[in-house]
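Assess this:
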Amino acid sequence: MKESKNVLHICASLNGGGVERMLQNYVCAIKDETIQFHIIKHQQAEGMLEKALQECGCKITYIIPKSKNVFQYTKELITYMKQNQIDVVHCHQGYVSFFPLGVAKLCGVKKRIAHGHTAFEKESRIRKWYRALTTCFTKMVATDLLACGDSAGRWMWHKNYTVIPNAMQVEQFYFSETMRIQKRKELNIDNQFVIGCVSRLVPDKNHMFLLEIFREIRKKEPNATLVLVGDGSCYDEILNDINQYNIEKNVLLLKIRNDVSSLLNAFDAFVLPTKYEGLGICFIEAQINGLPTFAPQGAVPVETKITSQLSYLPMGNPETWADSILLGKRQALSEEENQAIEQYDIAIQPQKLLNVYRGEDKRGDA
């Protein structure tokens, strides 16, 4: 008989970003009555994914962020772990997971997982030293190191890590002509050439450059619309630039949506000139949909390219991006590409994560 386990995930929020969606997909796909999932979040407001996670049996609790009150944070974290007899702590804070995992070790939690979701961050010399130091601390208290892809694993952990793909319900992302017609009517973009982007509106995603690209596209294709799905700290700045460029009638700001898989059908191209990604699951989703997909060279890992539809372009010249985007055409997936997509199918991948939860401590230090 399998031993029951209380598994605690620690993440910033549950608002529908790539990490949170990956977490939802795995938690809701793991049908194991001996696993009880818990989530500690650091955003007090209810996130978009919370109800779905609770419906899957997940217990969700807010505790004050460490940045606001480290003593209160520590006290609440210890109390929660002890009261709920936590067996596994799975922290999604990458190389800065050392603090909650250190607390977990003090509480006697035997399985302590640090999960890296980023790579290729632009760093100053001081930042590199900080990352090197905090990575050492994290490795000292973690029993397992995970990464969303091989590039993220090598960049963050160097070695001795396990890749857990950001799996999803793949079938939801396949192209649907019916859904395309429906969503384009809903958004009133029936006859437009639509460039889409699904991402948090934060500086690292580089939406300002995306707006420059769109301005170049408009010069050559006046009947073009840009659809931005997501929210974040740059929302007001992006809105201000849209107004300054006089393109407010040609840009749709949809904020956070729970119908991303359907919205992709309405696009004619997917574009995100991000500054860095650990994997970039949004690029995977767009490729599954058959969309011409565009990413910056050197910022998005090579393993993100699972179909011929993903093109890597050099940063710097928005006109080059515009020309490539306008030449892109949606294509049906080949048999080989469909096989490559299977690695992201949530129907296949959960056992790999369960094996980590149930496996012996790799370092045997608990």
Q: What stands out?
A: The mean pLDDT is 92. The longest helix spans residues 125-141. The two ends are 23 Å apart (CA to CA). The chain is about 35% helix and 15% strand.
